[in-house]
Protein backbone atom coordinates (compact mmCIF):
# COMPACT_ATOMS: atom_id res chain seq x y z
CA UNK A 1 0.00 0.00 0.00
CA UNK A 2 1.35 3.44 -0.84
CA UNK A 3 0.63 6.52 1.23
CA UNK A 4 -1.94 8.02 -1.14
CA UNK A 5 -3.80 4.71 -1.12
CA UNK A 6 -3.79 4.78 2.69
CA UNK A 7 -5.00 8.38 2.60
CA UNK A 8 -7.94 7.43 0.37
CA UNK A 9 -8.79 4.59 2.74
CA UNK A 10 -8.60 6.84 5.80
CA UNK A 11 -11.00 9.28 4.19
CA UNK A 12 -13.69 6.59 4.10
CA UNK A 13 -13.99 6.94 7.89
CA UNK A 14 -13.46 10.71 8.11
CA UNK A 15 -16.09 13.32 8.79
CA UNK A 16 -17.03 15.59 5.88
CA UNK A 17 -14.75 18.59 5.36
CA UNK A 18 -17.66 20.97 5.77
CA UNK A 19 -18.53 19.69 9.24
CA UNK A 20 -18.30 22.60 11.67
CA UNK A 21 -14.82 22.92 13.21
CA UNK A 22 -13.51 19.87 11.33
CA UNK A 23 -10.05 21.38 10.83
CA UNK A 24 -9.74 22.05 14.56
CA UNK A 25 -11.02 18.54 15.29
CA UNK A 26 -8.31 17.04 13.09
CA UNK A 27 -5.50 19.11 14.58
CA UNK A 28 -6.57 18.38 18.14
CA UNK A 29 -7.05 14.71 17.30
CA UNK A 30 -3.50 14.51 15.96
CA UNK A 31 -2.11 16.20 19.05
CA UNK A 32 -4.21 13.99 21.31
CA UNK A 33 -3.12 10.75 19.68
CA UNK A 34 0.52 11.87 19.76
CA UNK A 35 0.04 12.63 23.44
CA UNK A 36 -1.30 9.11 24.01
CA UNK A 37 1.99 7.73 22.67
CA UNK A 38 3.95 10.05 24.96
CA UNK A 39 1.78 9.00 27.90
CA UNK A 40 2.45 5.32 27.25
CA UNK A 41 6.18 5.97 27.17
CA UNK A 42 5.96 8.09 30.34
CA UNK A 43 4.42 5.09 32.11
CA UNK A 44 7.07 2.83 30.58
CA UNK A 45 9.75 5.04 32.15
CA UNK A 46 7.90 5.37 35.46
CA UNK A 47 6.65 1.82 35.89
CA UNK A 48 8.95 -0.37 33.81
CA UNK A 49 12.32 1.30 34.39
CA UNK A 50 12.68 2.07 30.66
CA UNK A 51 13.22 -1.62 29.91
CA UNK A 52 12.92 -1.81 26.12
CA UNK A 53 12.00 -5.49 26.25
CA UNK A 54 8.79 -4.45 28.05
CA UNK A 55 7.50 -1.98 25.48
CA UNK A 56 4.03 -3.05 24.35
CA UNK A 57 4.76 -2.80 20.64
CA UNK A 58 1.29 -3.91 19.59
CA UNK A 59 -0.27 -1.14 21.68
CA UNK A 60 2.18 1.46 20.35
CA UNK A 61 1.45 0.27 16.79
CA UNK A 62 -2.26 0.95 17.36
CA UNK A 63 -1.53 4.47 18.59
CA UNK A 64 0.85 5.12 15.68
CA UNK A 65 -1.96 4.01 13.38
CA UNK A 66 -4.24 6.59 14.96
CA UNK A 67 -1.59 9.29 14.44
CA UNK A 68 -1.19 8.18 10.82
CA UNK A 69 -4.96 8.41 10.26
CA UNK A 70 -5.08 11.98 11.54
CA UNK A 71 -2.03 12.97 9.48
CA UNK A 72 -3.60 11.49 6.35
CA UNK A 73 -6.99 13.12 6.83
CA UNK A 74 -5.52 16.47 7.90
CA UNK A 75 -3.27 16.48 4.83
CA UNK A 76 -6.29 15.80 2.61
CA UNK A 77 -8.26 18.57 4.31
CA UNK A 78 -5.42 20.91 3.30
CA UNK A 79 -5.39 19.46 -0.24
CA UNK A 80 -2.03 17.77 0.30
CA UNK A 81 -1.12 14.35 -1.00
CA UNK A 82 0.37 12.16 1.73
CA UNK A 83 2.84 10.78 -0.84
CA UNK A 84 3.93 14.35 -1.64
CA UNK A 85 4.28 15.25 2.04
CA UNK A 86 6.43 12.18 2.68
CA UNK A 87 8.56 12.71 -0.43
CA UNK A 88 9.20 16.35 0.44
CA UNK A 89 10.11 15.41 4.02
CA UNK A 90 12.68 12.82 2.90
CA UNK A 91 14.17 15.31 0.42
CA UNK A 92 14.42 17.95 3.17
CA UNK A 93 16.17 15.52 5.51
CA UNK A 94 18.53 14.29 2.80
CA UNK A 95 19.46 17.89 2.03
CA UNK A 96 20.17 18.58 5.69
CA UNK A 97 22.25 15.44 5.93
CA UNK A 98 24.22 16.38 2.83
CA UNK A 99 24.92 19.83 4.27
CA UNK A 100 25.86 18.43 7.67
CA UNK A 101 22.98 20.12 9.52
CA UNK A 102 20.78 17.11 10.22
CA UNK A 103 21.23 17.41 13.98
CA UNK A 104 20.79 21.18 14.17
CA UNK A 105 17.61 22.94 15.14
CA UNK A 106 15.06 25.00 13.27
CA UNK A 107 13.33 24.28 9.98
CA UNK A 108 15.42 26.65 7.86
CA UNK A 109 18.85 25.07 8.15
From TrEMBL:
Residues 25-97 form the NTP pyrophosphohydrolase MazG-like domain. It comes from the Bacteria. SUPFAM superfamilies: all-alpha NTP pyrophosphatases (SSF101386). Signal peptide: none annotated. Pfam families: MazG. This is Nucleoside triphosphate pyrophosphohydrolase family protein. The lineage of its organism: Bacteria, Bacillati, Actinomycetota, Actinomycetes, Micromonosporales.
Amino acid sequence: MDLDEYQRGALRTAAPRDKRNELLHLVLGLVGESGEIAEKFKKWVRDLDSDESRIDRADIAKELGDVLWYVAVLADYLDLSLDDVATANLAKLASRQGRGVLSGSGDNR
